[in-house]
Automatic annotation (TrEMBL), chains A, B:
<protein>
    <recommendedName>
        <fullName>glycine--tRNA ligase</fullName>
        <ecNumber>6.1.1.14</ecNumber>
    </recommendedName>
</protein>
<dbReference type="GO" id="GO:0005739">
    <property type="term" value="C:mitochondrion"/>
</dbReference>
<dbReference type="Pfam" id="PF00587">
    <property type="entry name" value="tRNA-synt_2b"/>
</dbReference>
<dbReference type="GO" id="GO:0005524">
    <property type="term" value="F:ATP binding"/>
</dbReference>
<keyword id="KW-0808">Transferase</keyword>
<dbReference type="GO" id="GO:0070150">
    <property type="term" value="P:mitochondrial glycyl-tRNA aminoacylation"/>
</dbReference>
<dbReference type="GO" id="GO:0016740">
    <property type="term" value="F:transferase activity"/>
</dbReference>
<comment type="similarity">
    <text>Belongs to the class-II aminoacyl-tRNA synthetase family.</text>
</comment>
<keyword id="KW-0963">Cytoplasm</keyword>
<feature type="domain" description="Aminoacyl-transfer RNA synthetases class-II family profile">
    <location>
        <begin position="83"/>
        <end position="561"/>
    </location>
</feature>
<keyword id="KW-0648">Protein biosynthesis</keyword>
<comment type="subunit">
    <text>Homodimer.</text>
</comment>
<dbReference type="InterPro" id="IPR002314">
    <property type="entry name" value="aa-tRNA-synt_IIb"/>
</dbReference>
<dbReference type="InterPro" id="IPR000738">
    <property type="entry name" value="WHEP-TRS_dom"/>
</dbReference>
<keyword id="KW-0030">Aminoacyl-tRNA synthetase</keyword>
<dbReference type="Pfam" id="PF03129">
    <property type="entry name" value="HGTP_anticodon"/>
</dbReference>
<dbReference type="InterPro" id="IPR006195">
    <property type="entry name" value="aa-tRNA-synth_II"/>
</dbReference>
Length: 695, 695
């Protein structure tokens, strides 16, 4: 253990003991015969809250030290932490490698019961936070997509990774993986490496994502990289399309793909959705659904998979007005941002106030800024640690040429900083692409309050004169003249007026002809226009739900010693909002009357819509608490009498006594977020002889 | 209009006028100066409720008359009704043909905003009604499935439809569709048809689903059926696998399919789920997700599609004990059942009490019966008309050979009776199939309270003797002897004891050998067993969510004249549970102060989690009511003052006045199902000058 880590651990232990002492003091105050003055209790409670915040910060610093430290010890501690999380997740069936009894398929995972419940809670909250609160138009489109759609979007041509094959066995590898592995291995194991060479290899790893196919090919050749398992020579590298291909209908003539994103389903429906919204901008459409990516060799466990759930928003807005009426609601938020300038200067992410980031132009526009703020609120309410969440702006070379600005919500976990949400201003690219390919205009209209006078270029070729001069070629010359841009036409007008004739290149003829003044009339006419027709810009927040959930698992996981101190107990500190089960019910001992009470309580919980389980195994209360902590159940109800029961909170382990007919409403109150545990604590007596972990 | 239909219409109109009169009486009672006695009001309200039930029944009888009547007029009225529903659904974007701007793909549909909201409400209720209330283990598995899994399940071999091709153009047709279309056309258009021939064609249509490939081939040949568009000859018929095929990973060597059902994901996880459930039976696992079926030529609009959402339950149970502890909760339900005997006798479905159906053995077991009851409750609470819902038992030839019993929940719509939920007792088939293919035992254990003595067959071949007799073939003979069933072995034992030798056929040798007494010892040994190991039976309720939703649309749709009587207004009478939007907010006239109130109300609705829209278009209140009725919004809030507002119920058009700060809680109460509209009606004043459809 590094010295600094040891000191952090000591600091944390001290804070925790102060918190415990204060908690005891509060309890004593409450229990004092005759009762303490309310003001006294309130003050003590406030002090306890502040102490808890400090203890939380100390715990986070320790966590950060464990994760951020860049030496080998920290790396292996990150590995050990991940192993502990993943072991718990797999043992408690949060995840299951899919088709496990058939030895599985790389990159495919099932959500088992608690994982599935967490996912469905996350999606329900996403619907509440985005679709409902923002009045978005939610749609649900099929995964099977005909080729024409994905040709228009560019996926058929460009959704590829570069691959090489073992020339003898045919095994496939991702070219960049091989290069990265080679560099890492050299750096770790080759003790003869010169400082220059080491720097070069480190540089390669850093710029890996930006290498062109040509550069990647060069590097593989230069380093003499061979197939890792067989040392056989490798094929040349070639693009592999990452979409799962299939065929629609029985003829075999209609190729289709499993969609690589949900966004296209929204774009192709723009016209109908715009109409549905009363032909008004801005509006947002949203979609939750499966997306597919036939990875060459999936790595990073649950973070890079072949099938995943996306939740995407396409917010359509007038490109001339990207203000947002509700921006004020998020303008005061302050969090970690990592603008382009800081990245290029080698600095680190910094705390910024969102309103300032927008007003200073760091974030391109208010609407983009509004979504960054809403995403921040979404993630932190789920339980993502705000100190391990940052918004990183794309560098110019990361962005598509058409994008106006792009920020990724990155969450730090044991794999490093992981992109979990992308928030991009994609300008008019997608709608234009589908307009062109389908021939259906995907545009918006702005009616002017009164008609506006605009100048419009009018080019009128004289067919008679052109016919006489060019005979059979006349048509091509006419078309070329009509196709001139405003600038070209005005130049021609000036030249014809001053010189009477002008050389003019006609592409379709492949030659230059001479145009005389009488052959064409060019003028700027005044015209009244009643509306502006334009292609809306789209701002796209796109959420990788599986990645968010995995990071949430890491951020929520901690261990604590059992009272017997013979083992570490695992806890997921999920907020009630996402906890897979809100409440467990335990009869203290195995007797019919307690079982009956447990059933009555279970029924009232079900009626209140609270997910719960009954654990009537005869094992000790301590073991049952441990079992329920390990899947992150926030509240446990112990049935120890036939009139009232004990409710225990997971993280503080505090217990209160509540009468049987109030249990469901109390649990609902604290799981719905109407009240905090702190709020209800003072309304009910604490348990005089609390059930402990040893029982 | 048929005479009986006319009389039903009159009866309905009469009932409705009595309801209206009684409603007025109730209103008068309430408004009486000094107030009526509460008892008097209560009695009047009860009378009104009873009348409404009668009016509802009359309306349903009319509906049934419209749908059931088998003559041409009724058929065309069904068509017209369907057209009206589908027009409304498409115009209001409940559904959109997918990829419409690219001229669509047959059998693929999007859910637009209101459809998507209905779907998400139906799924949320499914989770509440089944997963939560029954403590099921929900899982979420990928759609991409490796071939080995679907080989084990039988889908690779058997999930096929019979297809024929136009020999010249290559166009594909479903063989049974061609035969059906041929018969229908003949029956409709060929006036020279003899009664015998007509009977024959009708019979063919009836038994279409039961025809073997051979019979189908014969019929196509006998009737000289050709390609419908070109009249070209048809190819021989051959099976076409309905799964969308793809390839997993880059090698092209791992075939995979898009899952045709979600069930397999549960079966392959049985071992883990059983462990998760504390190694106890019974338990149920559930899954909601997309499934795929590459139909040859999709028909019936939204009922037969290529991608759809399934919700499936696999309830694992001891085959020796299929009782269900909660069966009493559903035993008194009475609804339309259509047992095998009634079908075979040519009778119609009949009202049965579920408890009797199980006790008389009509339904195979309590667990199957319990799920039938729960499905009935689920569908009727969604808003499916219970008079157009029946449970039809599979005929012996419809069931897989391994199935113990199977009932379909069929819902009547304009396409006829449609299978929407299948509830099958599949015995141990699926788990056994995956056990065999994977080599992993998918079994359950029942520990005996104390060890039991059982007799077990023991076969001990004498390798020495067999080696001497058969030399190189010894191994095959040993294996064949060890593989004998108990019956074969006991016969051999008897023969050897009486005759000293016996002829014995060894398959692997392809010949019969002579076995002498000394070559094998056969005995029944007594052994103590501590547990029973068995493969659980599975009872599978499987819900086609899209079909249920489509039938719900038809059952909820009605038209009513506008007050001006110049047009019919469309209404979807969704219960609040499934309504896409629970509440609309209209400022009565366009003024800033009403707009502000509307925004305050909208905010409180959002905070209460109630989906809503604001309609601030300047159109008349009547038009806005019509617009909101047409997407089935149950409540409309009209802002007509800055202190209190009007809430209007969709179907009764009744209005009450509620203060602004109570709006959200009142709407929540009636949409959550805590209260009915009738309940809140009496707590608030009705609107003195109600907003009418003409405003």
């Amino acid at each position: 253990m590094a010295a600094s880590e040891e000191s952090l651990r000591q600091a944390l232990a001290e804070k925790q003991s102060i918190v415990d002492a204060q908690a005891d003091a509060v309890r004593a105050l409450k229990a004092r015969p005759g009762g303490a003055a309310q003001a006294e209790i309130d003050a003590a409670v406030e002090a306890l809250k502040a102490l808890k915040v400090e203890a939380g910060a100390a715990a986070r610093r320790l966590q950060a030290a464990l994760s951020n430290n860049s030496d080998g010890a920290a790396a292996s501690s990150r590995e050990a932490f991940r192993q502990a999380v993943v072991n718990t997740l797999e043992r408690r069936l949060f995840y299951i490698p899919s088709f496990k009894i058939y030895r599985g398929v790389a990159g495919l995972y099932d959500y088992g019961p608690p994982g599935c419940a967490v996912k469905s809670n996350v999606l329900a909250f996403w619907r509440q936070h985005f679709v409902l609160e923002e009045n978005m138009l939610e749609v649900d489109c099929p995964c099977v997509t005909p080729e024409v759609v994905l040709k228009a979007s560019g996926h058929v041509e460009k959704f590829t990774d570069l691959m090489v094959k073992d020339e003898k066995t045919g095994t496939c590898y991702r070219a960049d993986h091989l290069l990265k592995d080679f560099c890492k291995e050299k750096l770790e194991k080759d003790l003869t490496l010169s400082p220059d060479k080491a720097a070069e290899l480190k540089h390669v790893i850093m710029v890996l994502d930006d290498l062109s196919a040509e550069e990647l090919r060069e590097k593989l050749k230069e380093y003499g990289i061979t197939a890792p398992d067989t040392k056989n020579p490798l094929s040349d590298l070639y693009p592999f399309n990452l979409m799962f291909q299939t065929s629609i209908g029985p003829s075999g003539l209609s190729p289709g793909y499993m969609r690589p994103e949900t966004a296209q389903g929204i774009f192709v429906n723009f016209k109908d959705l715009y109409y549905y919204n009363g032909n008004k901008l801005p509006f947002a459409a949203a979609q939750i659904g499966q997306a597919f990516r036939n990875e060459i060799s999936p790595r990073q466990g649950l973070l890079r998979v072949r099938e995943f759930t996306l939740a995407e928003i396409e917010h359509f807005v007038d490109p001339d007005d990207k203000s947002h009426p509700k921006f004020v609601d998020v303008a005061n938020l302050e969090f970690l941002m990592f603008p382009r300038a800081e990245q290029l200067a080698g600095k680190s992410a910094k705390q910024m106030i969102l309103g300032e980031a927008v007003s200073k132009g760091v974030v391109n526009n208010e609407t983009l800024g509004y979504f960054i703020g809403r995403v921040f609120l979404f993630l932190t309410r789920l339980g993502i640690d705000k100190d391990r969440l940052r918004f990183r702006q794309h560098l110019p070379n990361e962005m598509a040429h058409y994008a106006a600005d792009c920020w990724d919500a990155e969450i730090e976990c044991s794999y490093g900083w992981i992109e979990c949400v992308g928030i991009a201003d994609r300008s008019a690219y997608d709608l234009r692409a589908h307009s062109e390919k389908s021939g259906v205009a995907l545009v918006a209209h702005e009616k002017f309050p009164e008609p506006r006078e605009v100048e419009k270029l009018v080019i009128v070729p004289s067919k008679k004169e052109l016919g006489l001069a060019f005979k059979g070629s006349q048509k091509m010359v006419v078309e070329a003249l009509e196709a001139m841009s405003e600038k070209e036409a005005l130049e021609m007008k000036a030249t014809l007026e001053s010189k009477g004739e002008m050389d003019f290149h006609v592409c379709t003829l492949g030659k230059t002809v001479s145009i005389m003044k009488k052959m064409v009339s060019i003028s700027m006419d005044k015209k009244k226009e009643h509306q502006r027709v334009f292609t809306p810009s789209v701002i796209e927040p796109s959420f990788g739900i599986g990645r968010i959930i995995y990071c949430l698992f890491e951020h929520s996981f901690y261990t604590r010693p059992s009272k017997a101190e013979d083992e570490q107990l695992n806890v997921f500190s999920f907020p009630p909002l996402v906890a897979p089960i809100k409440c467990t019910v335990f009869p203290l001992i195995k007797t019919q009357k307690f079982d009956d009470v447990a059933k009555i309580i279970a029924k009232s919980l079900a009626a209140a819509g609270i997910s719960h389980i009954i654990d009537i195994t005869g094992t000790s209360i301590g073991k049952r608490y441990a079992r329920t902590d390990e899947i992150g159940v926030p509240f446990a109800v112990t049935v120890d009498s036939t009139t009232s029961v004990t409710i225990r909170e997971r993280d503080s382990k505090q217990q209160i006594r509540v009468s049987i007919d109030e249990v469901a409403s109390v649990v609902k109150e604290v799981t719905d977020g109407q009240s905090t545990w702190g709020d209800v604590m003072w309304r009910y007596p604490t348990h005089s002889t609390a059930h402990t972990e040893e029982e």
